[in-house]
Amino acid sequence: MVLVDTHSHIFVQEFDLDREQTIARAAEVGVQKFILPNIDSSSIPRLLETSQAFPNVCFPLMGLHPTSVGKDFEKELEVVEDWLTQHKFYGIGEIGIDLYWDKTYVEQQKEAFAYQIRLAKKHNLPIVIHARNSFDEIFEVLDKENDSALRGVFHSFTGGEKEYKRIMSYGGFILGLGGVVTYKNGGVDKVVPLMDTSEIILETDSPYLSPVPNRGKRNEPANLIYTAKRVADLLNIDIQHLASATTANAIELFGITSK
Ligand SMILES: [Zn+2]
Questions:
Q1: Within a domain: 259
Q2: CA triplet 243, 246, 251: central angle to 5 degrees?
Q3: DSSP-derived secondary structure letter, 11
Q4: What CATH number did the domain enclosing 26 receive?
Q5: Distance from the CA of 194 to the center of ligand 1, in angstroms?
Q6: Among the listed residues 63, 126, 70, 122, the one whose alpha carbon sits nearest the alpha carbon of residue 96
Q7: How far is the CA of 93 from the centre of ligand 1 (A)?
Q8: Ligand 1: distance of its center to the CA of 128 in Å?
Q9: Ligand 1 centre and the CA of 220: distance in Å?
Q10: What is the pLDDT of residues 8-38, one digit of tens each?
Q11: How many angstroms separate the alpha carbon of residue 145 from the centre of ligand 1?
């Protein structure tokens, strides 16, 4: 069984003491590839260092995270744009809108999101969307920017049936399922049974959102197995079937190699 952790911040400081062991523990349970979404200009050196240390295992994305959108967001976007011309990246991420922590820069967040969607189209790359308390604002931007060339994933999807259907109606998007599917009060477990295996990929969002039975601890890619088991149960299919479908979806979306 081969799994891809499609959203993993294993380049952050929390893994400095055991990054290699973390990747080895993941490989033991079949998690062999990792998509690494960027945060902002300050995380780029670590992102690139980690990707270079584990070639063909770690695949970096370039983008400005919505919680890093502030007064200087235009400068930050210049950095993103600049790196896209200098280095190979496998997508634009993570980008989107987060109104959970702070609503001060909502207009700037929308602008940064739209701008990075256009960068994705220009470079023919998929987008990785972070949506937190912001489906209305995300849909508002997507309604304007979506076209047949745009594709991507709603990472750590936690919406209901209505949001699921709206996302599917855009045509080029799939859903990233993470640890929240294992939470009793998560809610998304009621929507997963409606999904087709062609519509989903799996992720941990390490070091955050650790699935049950490790909820509350530092999350790491080996925990992807708990999320995979839960999703397979909800879809009433075996885990091998889920693994092969979601791995194929991840390979296709990010254009990574299977070996
Ligand atoms: Zn993330």
A1: no
A2: 115
A3: T
A4: 3.20.20.140
A5: 25
A6: 63
A7: 9
A8: 9
A9: 13
A10: 999 999 999 999 999 999 999 999 999 999 9
A11: 22
Tell how far the Cα of 9 is from the centroid of ligand 1, in angstroms: 7
99-114 per-residue burial string, b: 16 or more CB within 10 A, e: under 16: beeeeebbebbbbbbe
Question: Would you call the peptide bond into 211 cis, given omega within 30 degrees of 0 as the criterion?
Answer: no
- Measure 135 CA to ligand 1 centroid, in angstroms: 17
Q: For the chain, how many structural domains are there in total?
A: 1
Task: With cut-offs at 50, 70 and 90, classify the pLDDT of residue 258.
Answer: low
**Structure confidence by residue, pLDDT tens digits, 173-193:** 999 999 999 998 889 999 999
In order of 108, 120, 161, the CA distances from 203 in angstroms are: 28, 21, 20
Which tokens belong to 38?
């960027």
132 is in which domain, residue-wise? 3-254
Residue 143 located in a structural domain: yes
Long-range pairs for 168-172: beta carbons < 8 A, 24 or more residues apart: 168/199, 170/142, 170/146, 171/146, 172/146, 172/148
**CB-based contacts of 221, cutoff 8 Å, min separation 6:** 5, 8, 10, 22, 23, 25, 26, 31, 34, 204, 206
Distance 94 CA to ligand 1 centre (A): 6
